[in-house]
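Hi! If you just cloned this repository, the fastest way to understand the data is to look at a raw example. We've pasted two of them here, unedited. The first protein comes first, obviously.
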Amino acid sequence: MAASPNSRKRTPAPPVVPPPMADVAKLAGLVYVSDAEPGYSRRRAGKGFGYRDPEGRAVRDALTLTRIRALAIPPAYTEVWICLQERGHLQATGRDARRRKQYRYHPDWMQVTGEGKFDRIVQFGAALPRLRRRLRQDLKRTGFPREKVLAIVVAVMAETLVRIGNATYARENRSFGLTTLRNRHVAFARDRVRLKFRGKGGLEHDIGIDDARLVKLIRAVQHLPGQALFQYQDDDGTLQPVDSGQVNAYLHEVMGEDFTAKDFRTWGGTLAAFKLLAATPLPEPPSKAALNRAKNGVIKEVARALGNTPAVCRKAYIDPCVFVAWEDGRLQKIAGDARGERQWEQAALKLMAKVHKVSLGKAKRAAAA
C-alpha cells in the first residue's frame, strides 16, 4: 500500500520481478547477475593486486585469477566488484577517478546486446505508467523528504530530458546536470521557470518549463537554505543534496529494472524521432540521398533537444528501428492520427515491441506487478 501523502515513511519497494533481460542472458548461455550480489573484491598487494572472496579469503585458483586479470580492470578503479560466476553477464564494476561507475560485461553478452542494445527501451516504456503513479504519490508528500525531492528531479528529467549530472564534473569542469544545479541556475517569470546552465562539453542550456505543478515545486525547493537547488530533509531535519546514485536507485526501486537516468534520454530521443518522422513525408523519388537528408534533419532536431552532437545522438539515443519503419511505411501506419503525448508513446511502444519481438502485453504486466 502506498504511503499517505502526509506520511514521511518510505513507500515499500514493489515486488521484485525477474528482469526481461534475464531471458536475453539465458539465451546467450549466461546468468543475469547484479553487483549487489556477493563478489570478489580487489586489494593492493605490493606492486599489484590481490583478490578476496566474500568471506575475505585470498583467491588462489589459477583459472579464476586468469579470468579476473583478463578483465583488465584499470588500476585506478576503486570499489571493485567481480562476479563469482564465470558465466555472469556482468563480470565486474568499479568507480573511476571521477567516481562514475564503470562496467565490464561478458563478451557473449556484448555480442548479443550489441545487435539489440535498444531492446530494453520497450520495458522502459511499458514501466512509465508505474513510475508516473509513484511520482504522483511522492510529489504530494508534505515537507521535503528524500522521496519527494527525488520525485521532483525525476519529473523534471522526464519533462526536459536533461542529463542527471555528476558532482565531480560540477567541481572540476564547472559543468552541471539536474542533481548539481545551483539556485543561481534558476529564474522565474510569471508561471514559467527557466534553467540556464553550462552542461557537459561546455554546451549552454536554456530550458523552459511551463508545467504549473513543476514550476511550483521548483520554486519551493529553491527557497530552501543553501546553494544546491535540489535538497531534501533527512530524518534529523538536516538538508542534504540529492545525487545521481539516489536518483538511479529511485528509478530502480519504482520501475523494477536496472533502469537509469540515461534510459530517459534514450526513450525521449527515440520518441522525438518517431514523432518527427511521422510528420515527414517520404521523398519522391525515394533516392538514398533524399532519404538520408530527411533522416539527418530529424537527427539534428533530436540532438538539439538532448544537447548532443548528431553523431552521438544517432548512435546512443535513437533506436534505428524508427528509421527503417519510416522508410517501409510501418511507422506512418502505426502512428496513424495519434494526438497527445500518451497516444504518441503508445504508438512508438507498439512499433518497437513489434521490431524487437517483445510481447508488449507481457512487458506491461511485468511493469504493473
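Ok, and the second one:
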Amino acid sequence: MQARFYLPMWGRFASPDPARDQHFEQTQSWNIYSYVQNNPVSFLDPDGQKLVLSGNATAELDRAMAYLAKSQAGREIVNYINMIKNSDTINLDLKVDTRVYYTNSAGDEIQWNPQIGTAVIDNPNDRTSETGEVQSPALALAHEIIHKMEKDRVGEKGIDRSAAPPYDNKEERRAVEKENKIAKQLGEPSRKNSTGNDVKVKDSTSRNPVEPTVQKRLEEARRKGQR
C-alpha cells in the first residue's frame, strides 16, 4: 500500500496516493495539488482510501442497499459497503455512469447506473434470445461489488479469469453464482451466463422497463418462452 510522502523543501509530494485517478498515474507525485487532482477548490483533500459517491449515487445507493438487505445473501454486500465507509485502508469509487462495470485499475472504480436493469438472455452469443425477465440495477451493483470483494480477498493475481463458457471466465461464473443466490431470495430472475441487455427502469430497485418498445419486446419474449 502506498502512502503520501511530502518533501517540504520541494513543496511537493514525492509519492502518489494509495488510490489515484488513472489519468494522474504518471504526474501525481510532482504536482503540488496532486492530492486533490489538481483542483484544491472543488476537492477537500480526498486521501484515496474512502468510498466516494458521485452524482446522485448517494440516495440510490441507500435505496439499493436497503433492498439488498432484505436477503440473507445480500446482507453480505451491505455489510461490506458499510465497512468501506468506515475504513481507512479500503478504497472504492462508486460513480453514476451510463454503463455498469467494475474496473480494478488505479482507484478501484465501479461505474453504476441506478436506472439500468439487466434483461436476462438464454444464449450469450445471441443478444436477441431474451427470456423477457429483468434484473434490478441493485442486483447489477451487487454483482460488481462481488468482484471487488474477491479482489480484496485474494488480490488481483489471485482472481481466476480462465475460460468457463457460457460465462466470460471463471470469475464471472463465481460472481453470477453469488448474484443468483441474492436474486432467488429477492424473487428476481437468475442468470445462466454473464451476459445481458441493458434496460432502462425507474430506479435502482425497479424491474419494469420504462420504454414502451422495450416493454413490448420483453412481453413477446415471455410469451414465446411459455409456449
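That's it. A detail worth noticing about the second one: Strands lie at 6-7, 12-13, 51-53, 92-96, 101-103, 109-112, 116-121, 130-135, 196-200.
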